[in-house]
Write a structure and sequence with these properties.
Layout lengths: L2 H22 L5 H20 L2 H26 L6 H10 L3 H27 L7 H29 L19 H10 L1 H5 L6 H4 L1 H13 L2 H12 L1 H9 L13
Helix pairs in contact: 1-2, 1-5, 2-3, 2-5, 3-6, 5-10, 6-7, 7-10
């Protein structure tokens, strides 16, 4: 089964990521390894486990996702201090950091393996291409563009010396505290649409469900907002009060 070698590959990628962050003393680089590793494994799984034009489209979408996000992470990490989330782990874990980091990265490899399931289901869906496939591509394109715009807006805000120490609320960041996470989640909503013609369509829902749980409740919003509260204090608390955490929509009076 294609998922077994894919899982071994992901485990090896994250072992290399652990070695690299140890040599560089900057764990922020592991996110790039995870992204490119998942992208490469996703392309292989889609092409090997799918059939017809649909497998090529699924492979192309996961490749585009990985290349864009990976390039963004590399640009963010090059010459920059360690990502605040990992710097916090380094402080909290102390002498046990390297051992716990290795285990943490292997858990990330397992998470990536789980995300290969919706790709496999989507790529292997039988039948000719139809309107649901077109809708899936449209959703993926909106996610691709939206996440790119959010990243560029944040970069532009942080690059302006006048904004040092301030909270970004420009553009999409005025509608959501984490618009990049929203569009990241939206990307994974495309694969269940590809899978509608198969009896295993429900398995493709693993992607958006698992990614939502990770981003909103585990490794995305909670540690990042904890760090922002430590560094921005009351300014970030005010931002939390007036802007939604996830959905990029105006926050109503009763929200």
């Amino acid at each position: 089964m294609i998922l077994i070698p894919a899982g071994l590959f992901l485990s090896a990628v994250m072992a290399i990521a652990w070695w690299a962050q140890r040599r560089l003393r900057n764990a922020g680089w592991v996110d790039a390894f995870w992204t490119y590793g998942l992208g490469a494994a996703g392309v292989a799984v889609a092409l090997a486990g799918g059939e017809g034009a649909r497998r090529v489209i699924v492979a192309g979408l996961i490749a585009a996702w990985a290349l864009r996000l990976g390039a963004h992470i590399v640009g963010r990490s090059r010459g920059a201090p360690e990502d605040s989330r990992y710097a916090h782990f380094r402080d909290v874990w102390g002498a046990g950091f390297e051992r716990r980091m290795f285990a943490f990265l292997q858990i990330q490899a397992a998470a990536a393996l789980l995300l290969l399931v919706p790709l496999l289901v989507a790529a292997s869906a039988p039948g000719p291409l139809g309107w649901t496939d077109a809708l899936a591509v449209a959703v993926a394109l909106v996610a691709f563009v939206g996440e790119g715009v959010a990243d560029r807006q944040l970069h532009a805000f942080r690059s302006d010396p006048r904004n040092h120490g301030k909270v970004c609320d420009a553009g999409l960041w005025g509608l959501s505290r984490h618009p990049n996470y929203f569009f990241e989640w939206l990307h994974w909503c495309a694969y269940p649409l590809f899978a509608l013609s198969t009896g295993w369509a429900a398995l493709a829902l693993i992607g958006p469900a698992f990614m939502y749980w990770l981003l909103v409740h585990v490794s995305g919003i909670p540690p990042l907002e904890a760090q922002m509260l430590r560094s921005r204090g009351d300014a970030y608390r005010a931002y939390q009060h007036r802007v939604r955490a996830f959905l990029p929509l105006p926050k109503g009076r009763t929200s």
